[in-house]
Design goal:
By secondary structure, this protein is mostly beta strands. Helix content is about 15%, strand content about 45%. It is built from four helices and 25 strands. The chain has a seven-stranded mixed beta sheet. A five-stranded mixed beta sheet has the order 6-4-1-3-7. Strands 2, 5, 8, 12 and 16 form a five-stranded antiparallel beta sheet that branches. Strand 22 and strand 23 form a beta hairpin. InterPro entries: c-di-AMP_regulator, YbbR. This is YbbR-like protein.
Length: about 350
């Protein structure tokens, strides 16, 4: 075998060995490589003051990274940086790619999301009055006045287009009791309904003091006066009559009491051992919540007429003649008077 043949044969061996070594290196490297996902906080930079993004971009970007398993095991989200560059952005739609900074010994193979479709809007503020609506119903016979708020206005801050759509901002007042309401209530966007959990619309202050007067409904009614007479007159006297001036009065009372009112009693008028008329000015007894429509009608005059009991006059009767049946009471004989007394005899008989 000559020298050229030997060299050619050695070259083939060497090439085969090199190819085998490369394949083995690739296999070993593939076995040592791995992938891992890291959640990374998305940073925003470059947006000019007075502008705002609407909708808000996500706060986190998912990065899928490939690299040696030994390296990946020692990495964390803090070793990566995801940036949203907004330099020069003006109001209107905008598409922006997310930029990523990563360690040199690993490769970022995907970003979720890779780019964002955004809208740049102007940041505005608006001052609006506090509106209100009621939740629940009042008991029968009660009414509400107009509520007052402290403060009476709130300030909205957010994207201009969102602020334009807001028609009503206020509080929801729970009602159902009889007492006035004085409490702090949260302010929310009422019309149209907007889910503001993300705080895109700032409301300042977030709550207001609410004062809601609640009172009874009052009506008018005329009631008869019932005198209250106590005691008994002196022996031999009796009550002939009783009168009240005025006999009826107009009162103001809650609506819920109106159907129950029949009459009003006076303060007691004592006629113990009285031998003559008793005349007294006494107060009317008004139930709680009721009052006279005219303050002067809180008093009435009660007159109790006391008279002597009339004595019964004895009547003279004519005894019947022997053998005669006495006539019925109240009738006379042929010669008697109508009341049964004997009529004097006339001359000539």
């Amino acid at each position: 075998m000559d020298l050229a043949e030997t060299a050619r044969r050695n070259w083939l061996y060497k090439a085969a060995a090199l190819a085998l070594a490369i394949l083995l290196w690739i296999y070993v490297q593939a076995e040592q490589q791995g992938t891992q996902t890291f959640p990374v906080t998305l940073e925003r930079e470059g947006l000019e003051a007075g502008y705002v993004l609407d909708p808000e971009p996500p706060n986190v970007v998912e990065l899928k990274v490939r690299g040696p398993k030994s390296v990946l095991a020692n990495l964390s989200s803090r070793d990566f940086r995801a940036r949203l560059s907004l330099s020069g952005a003006k109001p209107g739609p905008l598409t922006v790619s997310i930029q990523v900074d990563s360690p040199s010994n690993v490769q970022v193979i995907s970003r979720t999301p890779a780019e964002l479709n955004l809208n740049v809007d102007v940041l505005e503020t608006r001052t609006v009055p506090v509106a209100w609506e009621y939740k629940g119903t009042l008991p029968t016979g009660y009414k509400m006045g107009d509520p007052t708020f402290q403060p009476a206005d709130v300030v909205l801050s957010g994207p201009r287009e969102k602020l334009k759509a807001i028609r009503k901002v206020g509080v929801q007042i729970p009602v159902g009791g009889k007492e006035p309401i004085l409490r702090s209530l949260p302010v929310s966007i009422m019309e149209p309904y907007i889910n503001n959990d993300d705080g895109r619309i700032q409301i300042s202050p977030r709550s207001v003091e609410v004062n809601l007067p609640i009172t009874q409904e009052i009506t008018s009614k005329t009631a008869n006066v019932q005198p209250q007479v106590v005691g008994t007159p002196a022996k031999g006297y009796h009550v002939a009559s009783t009168r009240v001036e005025p006999a009826s009065v107009a009162v103001q009372l809650p609506v819920e009491m109106s159907s129950e009112l029949r009459s009003l009693s006076t303060a007691p008028v004592d006629i113990t051992d009285a031998k003559g008329d008793v005349v007294k000015d006494v107060a009317l007894q008004f139930p709680n919540g009721m009052r006279p429509q005219n303050a002067a009608q809180g008093m009435v005059r009660v007159t109790v007429v006391i008279e002597a009991v009339p004595a019964t006059a004895p009547t003279e009767t004519v005894p019947p003649a022997s053998g005669q049946t006495p006539p019925p009471a109240g009738t006379g004989t042929g010669t008697g008077t109508p009341n049964g007394t004997k009529e004097p005899a006339k001359e000539g008989q």
